[in-house]
Design brief:
656 residues; alpha+beta; eight-stranded mixed β-sheet; 31% helix; 22% strand
Length: 656
């Protein structure tokens, strides 16, 4: 029997490795930019066509390569970063595996121009699907200029599963932010289809954060700084009031490398537990500096997962540093010099002394006193007259208070006579009701119950509101009677369900009606958010949104002015509803038209639905129930949550 184990060719091995290293255009940019940083580049320019599917070009002013190094760099496990296994514990570079360039060359066409700074002539190298095409000497600028063309051209199935250009561009922008944040001293430019998306000058980390996410974020940051023998921690965290409900900016760096670390993330979030609500998260940009031999980056091909030797100790140091930063901020609140502050008079030494207080030292509030005279009024009532000296010049009369207490029964005379039954005896007490008086012949609950009767039950301190045949509980639930059951409905989920079905029908038919706003509302979008909005532009406008986009002067942000909103949106905030649609579209994996319609309809429904503690008129509540029960499936919300809960009469009887 012949041998069956064979050594795979390098071209096949590179294609297998490419499946782990190169997942989408953003992965290519990560590997190429990290190579530029390792080459000592101070300026990196990135040019894209069709979100990287057609072209990804990275130009840097790094050290460049000789013609021999340029050819050898595309061989598997060829690297200049390490020489022996022990070098893995002394890493000061981003790359070290020698897999990135061979993996990229296995799934694309490569065009490389490179020259060393001390050379007079560079080299031009061409490859396609790991196959050598040509290499010739050519004059070029010092550094490297590498173009990746037609990504996945030899893998049609892989290329087919790439998302829309706007979605892929969103991933590229997110990866670009991570690279730009970890290298604030490097100048970056990002171009897409001849349009400048980012142009960042070298500077501090704080300047880089403002350059990427807008100047407004600068006022939201608190510096974090601590240094111990184990780790040096520096960076910024956000003020508690600027925590985000979705898409928080959360970045960790270690020794100039991006990392994802859920354990350290939990340490930061735990410091905000008593400061923000559970559905909000803070922004943070935190850098760790440790000895290279105390971390292991050789865990995953993307090198984003890192293992720390002193993980638990660093967790405690990080938690203490964040709490200290938050404590310093809270300990020094800003002074408010508003115009409404009370005026403090200037001290005048020539002014007279303070007025003398007349204090009756013999006054005893518990001593019996003579009742004040009473003068009968025309209607038979009594009028209390008091004439007691003032105490402490405050206008308080002890005898007046005593007289009022002595005549307290007269205050309730009218109340008793009005509430007493017709017995002929004014103010007669009523007998306590018997349990039998609450029983009826009906098996269901009554259609109308007085709120005062419900609140009179001991322990029943929940707010009820009578809404015709429906009870509104705590401005959150609707309670009504069913056949031998009590029906409780989550008002918000019910409204989301009704609006979702309505919006879904409108988006599919593209008949969304728009309502013009009196004053255009402007919302700032990051380049990533703008790219996502472009991907769902037609669907969003079909809902009834009308907006225009302009790039903010001197910043990488975009200004979106909303001039029209869907007529069905109601009182919901147009800016927040549009941002929610963008956030949901960015996190959604489905890319079909039906998936986009459902995503947009759900986002808009969640934004426009009634909230907890929001007052609802009786007619609105009845209309909501009518719309809900007219749906084919009113039991569950679009996310799968329960809308209706039925409590059988037998369960109610069992509790009694």
């Amino acid at each position: 029997m012949s041998d069956v184990i064979q050594l795979l060719p390098d071209s096949v091995a590179n294609q297998i490795a490419a499946g782990e290293v190169i997942q989408r255009p953003a992965s290519v940019i990560k590997e190429l930019v990290e190579n530029s940083i390792d080459a000592g580049a101070t300026q990196v320019k990135i040019f894209l066509r069709d979100a990287g599917k057609t072209l990804i070009q990275v130009v840097d002013d790094g050290c460049g390569m000789s013609d021999t190094d340029a050819r050898l760099a595309f061989e598997r496990h060829a690297t200049s970063k390490i020489r022996q296994a022990s070098d893995l514990f002394e890493l000061h570079t981003m790359g070290f595996r020698g897999e990135a360039l061979p993996s990229i060359a296995a799934v694309a066409q490569i065009d490389l121009f490179t020259m060393k700074h001390d050379a007079t002539l560079g080299t031009h190298l061409e490859l396609a699907a790991s196959k050598f095409v040509s290499q010739v000497p050519e004059a070029c600028a010092p550094g490297s200029n590498l173009s990746v063309k037609n990504l996945f051209f030899n893998f049609p199935a892989r290329r087919k599963f790439l998302k829309k250009d706007a979605v892929e561009l969103s991933h590229i922008l997110h990866e670009f932010e991570r690279l730009a944040l970890v290298n604030p001293g490097v100048e970056f430019e990002l171009w897409h289809n001849d349009v400048t998306l980012h142009q960042l000058l070298p500077g501090s980390l704080r300047m880089r954060i403002s350059g990427l996410f807008g100047r407004a974020i600068d006022k939201q940051l608190i510096p974090v700084e601590t240094e111990t023998p184990l780790v040096k921690i520096s960076g910024f965290i956000s003020l508690p009031e600027h925590a985000r409900k979705r898409n928080a900016l959360q970045y960790f760096f270690v020794n100039g490398r991006n990392m994802v670390h859920p354990y350290f993330r939990k340490a930061v979030l735990s410091c905000y537990e008593q400061l923000i609500s559970s559905d909000h998260q803070p922004n943070f940009f935190i850098n760790f500096e440790v000895e290279p031999q105390t971390i292991d980056v050789n865990i995953h091909p993307t090198k984003s997962e890192i293992k720390f030797e002193n993980e638990q100790a660093i967790w405690q140091i990080l938690s203490a540093a964040v709490r200290e930063a938050l404590g310093k901020f809270n300990a020094s609140p800003a002074l408010d010099f508003s115009d409404d502050a009370p005026e403090i008079p200037v001290f005048n030494p020539d002014a007279g002394a303070a007025p003398e207080l007349n204090i009756d030292v013999d006054y005893n509030p518990f001593a019996p006193t003579k009742r004040s005279s009473e003068a009968h009024t025309e209607d038979g009532g009594a009028s209390v007259q008091t004439a007691a000296p003032s105490r402490l010049n405050s206008g308080y009369s002890g005898s007046s208070r005593k007289s009022s207490l002595d005549n307290w029964e007269k205050l309730y005379a009218d109340f008793k006579s009005a509430t007493a039954p017709e017995t002929g005896v004014p103010g007669a007490d009523t007998a306590a009701p018997t349990p039998e008086s609450f029983l009826t012949d009906e098996t269901d609950l009554p259609a109308s119950i007085e709120a005062s009767a419900l609140n009179a039950i001991p322990g029943m301190d929940i707010s009820w509101q009578n809404v015709g045949g429906v009870l509104q509980l705590a401005n959150r639930f609707l309670v009504t009677a069913g056949v031998n059951s009590l029906i409780v409905i989550d008002r918000h989920r019910a409204h989301v369900k009704v609006l979702y079905e309505r919006f879904l029908k409108e988006t599919e038919q593209s008949v969304g009606k728009s309502q013009q706003v009196m004053f255009g509302q402007v919302v700032e979008l990051t380049p990533e958010q703008r790219a996502v909005l472009d991907s769902v532009n037609d669907e969003v406008r079909a809902l009834g949104y009308e907006f225009s986009l302009e790039k903010a002067d001197g910043e990488g942000m975009f200004q979106c002015e909303i001039s029209g909103v869907p007529a069905i949106l109601g009182n919901a905030d147009p800016a927040q509803s549009l941002l929610k649609i963008i956030d949901d579209a960015a996190s959604e994996t489905g890319n079909s038209r039906e998936s986009i319609h459902r995503r947009l309809a759900l986002s808009l429904a969640q934004s426009a639905a009634i909230r907890a503690n929001e007052v609802q008129l009786p007619a609105e509540a009845e209309r909501l129930l009518a719309d809900l029960f007219s749906l084919p499936d009113p039991t569950y919300s679009p996310e799968g949550s329960t809308i209706i809960c039925q409590i059988p009469l037998s369960e109610i009887a069992r509790r009694f």
